[in-house]
Design brief:
binds nicotinamide-adenine-dinucleotide; globular; single chain; 333 residues; Rossmann fold; alpha/beta
Amino acid sequence: MKKICIVGGAGFIGHNLALQLRTLGHEVTCVDNLMVNNLISVIGNYDTLKFKNLNKKIINSRLNLLEEHDIELKIMDARDYHLVAKFIDQLKPDIVVHLAAVSHSNRSNKDPFNTFDHSFRTLENVLDATRDKIERLIYFSSSMVYGNFSKNEVDETDNCDPIGIYGTLKYCGEKIIKAYNQVFDLPYTIIRPSALYGERCVSRRVGQIFIENAINKEEIKIGGDGEDKLDFTYIKDLCNGVVLSINKKEAENEIFNLTYGNARTINNLKDILLEHFPNAKISYEKRDKLMPKRGTLSIKKANKLLGFSPTFSIEDAYPEYIKWYKEFTNSRI
Ligand SMILES: NC(=O)c1ccc[n+]([C@@H]2O[C@H](COP(=O)([O-])OP(=O)(O)OC[C@H]3O[C@@H](n4cnc5c(N)ncnc54)[C@H](O)[C@@H]3O)[C@@H](O)[C@H]2O)c1
């Protein structure tokens, strides 16, 4: 069993991953400042004011789950190098998973300065604090590093040409990790997820916006004609892939796409939504030019080296997520 430190561990992916790793018997510590897309920002941010009570309740349920599962949450700002270095020295983790970031491309484009600090500064701090000291660093990159997909299905050897602040900083993150590996032999695994959805997310990505707006009887605006494709991935599939990459030596110094591996259109997702909310109001608006054209991320490499085999199609998992959302919003806020 390993000692695992998750930086950004109170976030959507972080807490789900922490719970899964803990259930498997690992000793897990989460580090988070709760400031980005988390408790402190949902209370103070005008954009999310409308969802303040619901988001607060969702995030509190994450924190309760961490506590119930005996997972320590260290509230700490990973932008502060000295705090990070001291903490890593005391904890002595085997594995560090780096998730801290402004995890949303629109928000990154609106606020490059803070995105650099929370996404890149934190990564640099973790790299410097862990070199020579850990078995492996797991870094969360993104499908956005590819930019516009040059074909229907991209694999890890395909060219990366990101558009905008988010994807570009993710790509910089990959490069600096490789540099630390070259200079200090720090072992790494880079994960490229895409279009995640699932319980206790407050990021307002497409899958969540659909459900939230349908519940609130608000219009759902789809950018473009809805025929853009995304490789929608259920959180449990992603966490299973990360667990495999932690356990397998074959994951060392490799990059993996970890997605469902079969892109679907936004309209496909909308059709599933309509089965559960027949009266949902849908409209189409101009497509965001900074959003790259995407598609399927090949998971052949992850399948071959890790035995990764996702099981949740949107037909299986999206209705489960809708069910959870309905129950959660019906319970007392
Ligand atoms: N969710 C997706 O669909 C998706 C897709 C591709 C890549 N990713 C990447 O995976 C990672 C996690 O995504 P998520 O969906 O869980 O995002 P999230 O916003 O839910 O979680 C990020 C967490 O990092 C924390 N954080 C940010 N800055 C920090 C700092 N300075 N110190 C300490 N903690 C800090 C935040 O408080 C938050 O809890 C991100 O790097 C994101 O870019 C996510």
